Amino acid sequence: MTNPYRHSYKQELSDNVSLAIFNCGLQSCAPSHSWGPGVRDHFLIHMVLSGKGRYTCDGKTFELKAGDMFLIKPSQVVHYIADAQDPWEYYWVGFNGTYAQRATSHLPFSEARPVYAPKNFEACKEYLYQIYAHSGNAMSNSVAMVGYLYLFLAALIEEGRRLSPAQPATQSSYVIDAIKFIQFNYSTDISVDDIANAVGISRSHLYRVFISNLGQSPIDYLTEYRINEACNLIKNTNLSISQIAVSVGFFDQFYFSRVFKKIKNVPPSKYIQSLDNTGEV
Q1: Domains in the chain, please, with CATH?
Q2: What is the chain's Cα-based Rg?
Q3: According to the model, what pLDDT value does residue 13 have?
């Protein structure tokens, strides 16, 4: 058994962009070290490097050993504990963002079995290590960390595809096309009908595929995307609030402020002040 240790990194500020690292790290646990029962507000994947432990998710318990992974989804009640005699050592990465739910839906985990032993263990292990090795708050760190996260998820998604090669991709392709349309047109006065027409399906069908793949409606996705783009403009430009509102597709500053407060829990002015106080702007 190795001596217990914990090395971790947590992002200081992360908006709900397409895919963002929430935290990451590597840990050799003390005997019977545990977390929970509790819930997370982000996606979290652990990879067991050595030792053993037990993972309980939604009332089901799984025994894990070196080479296994386990997935935690937001709002799931989970508990995990290191073995008393041979405690585990693991890497982990937590992430969120508008793309996170869709990406994890293609991973080789299931509701019935949220654990998986990757065939390409060494590659997945290296990607997780590189995420932590590149941790930091500089732009270069953020880009590198997300880059390795994409490679890590891509490796697992490929394994999932090989396990279930016949799964239809029609619904997800509609969502991809809709998101692309939003990304290119969010700054204009587009509606859900415009998105549905661009994708070539009905408004009701668009709603169903968004709920199925992303867990939110098209209008909620569009609104959150616009507000997150507004946050980027607040951080990276000197534009006024009214200029930012127009830049992200809101042509009524007061309505923009109401929507911003609803999503971020503070009005734009307070959001700017909080960044000033932390030295982010």
Answers
A1: 5-163 (2.60.120.280), 170-278 (1.10.10.60)
A2: 21
A3: 46
